[in-house]
Amino acid sequence: MAVDRDHVLRSAAALLTRKATATLDEVAKAAGISRATLHRQFAGRDALVRALEEYGIQECEAALRAARLEEGPASDALRRLVAEIEPHAGLLAFLHTENQLFEGEDLNEGWTRMDERLGALFRRGQENGEFRIDLTPAWLTEASYGLLVSASWAVTDGRMAPNDFTRMITELLLGGVRRPHDAPGRTPA
After folding, report:
1. Contacts of 17 (CB under 8 A, 6+ apart)
2. Could you give the CA distance from residue 124 to residue 69 in angstroms, rounded to a whole number?
3. Which residues pair with 178 in a beta bridge?
């Protein structure tokens, strides 16, 4: 019987976003396969996490494309992005806790691609006068990830209603990045 790798990854992602400390036995059970079958697909937890990283990056990049970041006002594009990434926020939160993904020279280029796309959105919002210019696009990108991850944890823990995910993030983020009308200007970074 052939193992559906995508099914295993989706099952692992669903479990690990709820329980980051789940064992490989628990991952196998969630996927409906034996531990030996899981081990044939992924040599260990590290290999599984790396595969989940690739899967998560693919899902987030698809959300970036679906959000049409280049269209319309930057604030509207940001709202679309948060809504599109919401289904994958739990996986993003899990991946952000996996330090080995961000150490050493093996950093997946997908993170850089996503950073560049999001940074370009903030830069566009700054250039068109929509967003404040005293915060760098790189910082706004990092802050966005932080809010997505925090909101995912809040939803998982029952401290925030899932229906509030997009609104809570965008209102806080946009309220902080909007350019005050009376603030002295600086050129975008």
Report:
1. 90, 91, 93, 94, 152, 156
2. 10
3. 131
Q: How far apart are CA 129 and CA 74, in angstroms?
A: 10
DSSP state of 159: S
189 vs 182: CA distance, rounded Å: 20
Name the pTM for this structure: 0.83
Tens of pLDDT, residue by residue over 30-45, are 999 999 999 999 999 9
Q: What is the pLDDT of residues 100-141, one digit of tens each?
A: 777 777 778 889 999 999 999 999 999 999 999 999 999 999
Task: Kindly report the average pLDDT of the chain as a whole number.
Answer: 89
Whole-number Å distance between alpha carbons of 27 and 25: 5
pLDDT at position 96? 85
Question: What is the Cα–Cα distance from 62 to 145, expressed in whole angstroms?
Answer: 16
Give the end-to-end CA distance of the chain in Å, rounded to a whole number.
54
CA distance 4 to 157: 30
